[in-house]
Amino acid sequence: MVTYAELISAHPQKWKDAADDWAALAKYALNAANDVREQGAKPLADNWADEVGAAAAGDFVKLADQLESAYDLLLSVKMVMEGMHSSLETAMSTACQITDL
Q1: How many CB atoms lie within 10 A of CB 39?
Q2: Distance CA 9, CA 92 (A)
Q3: Which spans in 37-101 are helix H?
Q4: Measured in Å, how far apart are the chain's first and last C-alpha atoms?
Q5: Whole-prediction pTM
Q6: Is 8 in contact with 95 (CB distance < 8 Å)?
Q7: Alpha carbon distance 39, 19 (integer Å)
Q8: pLDDT in tens, 11-33
Q9: pLDDT, tens digit, for every residue of 51-83?
Q10: Which of 55, 65, 77, 57 is closest to 34 using CA atoms?
Q11: Which of 42, 49, 68, 84 has the fewest CB atoms within 10 Å around its CB?
Q12: Residue 42: what are its φ and ψ, rounded to 5°?
């Protein structure tokens, strides 16, 4: 259980900062997925038409798909962090209002 003193001395900004860090990581994953598609899979498909090239391009597409999945998961974590930030700020505000009453 969290005491009143612990609640009042909490640091909701740390949760917001963490959310921002997760958002940056998610953006990095999405940019990497786009780069893999544009600079890996696409040139291979355009310039290497045999089955070896197709297999290599397929591996790049698979990697890009995995990076896009990572992007979605990272955004999910970001949303949880933002929810914690918002909830903690609300709890702190309510606790202060109760004290004032």
Answers
A1: 11
A2: 9
A3: 42-47, 51-100
A4: 23
A5: 0.82
A6: yes
A7: 30
A8: 999 999 999 999 999 999 999 99
A9: 988 899 999 999 999 999 999 999 999 999 999
A10: 65
A11: 49
A12: -65, -50
